[in-house]
Amino acid sequence: MKKTNLGVVFGLVLPLASCSMMKSRPTENQKVSNNQVQTESRDREAFEKAANLTGGWPESSVNAAKEIISKYGEPSERTTDSLIWRNIAPFKKIVVHKEVYSHRFPLLHQNSLEHVVDYRAPVSKIDDVWQYNGSIVLDRTKGEMSSFAENESMNILALNLAHQVMTGKMGHEVARVTYGKETMNYLNGKKTANTTVLNFGNQFQTADQGESITNKIQWVGDPALQKKGPTQTQRIKQAQEEN
Fold it and tell me: N or C: which end of the chain has fewer CB within 10 A?
């Protein structure tokens, strides 16, 4: 029997194994292509779901629904005029509205998408926030701040700059200019941190239950009021007694 040359055997096996491994590993181009196919498939599915959930709604609402469904899946709740996602960190609530409002700042668009966060707004800065952006809504009782825009990036930008205004780090005029510049950059494909993530952390126990004033109200019959003369209620009662 002839002796087998092990060196020759290994010399033949190694190239074959190497070729097999090369074939099994996807190339970078194949990875990119697969990712594109997956993205296109996800977008198409999101568009179909959005179209089914928003039949007859304005185009801006449909586009907003498509974006949010693509990112976060189907909504938690659905009403006749809204789609609602709850507790999608860092947001307390995301709402796509059927009813839209046109807004010219910084460019003409339709506000169809709302993002809500827990936020305790300082009363002294509320006017500044409104001068900066009328699409920012502050609810003192609930302890919430929300922004209305056409897409998530613009809402994130609006909320970030509102926080800058309320913390005194930016004046309302500077905030308006900054919002305009960053919007143009975004439209030109240049995303920034301000349009990508919230630059302030979650706040807790932001609700303001207010203060009862019943102990401060001077009721009819109070001696102090009687010294100042009868109230309208007292005069009516007195007239009825005289009749």
Answer: N
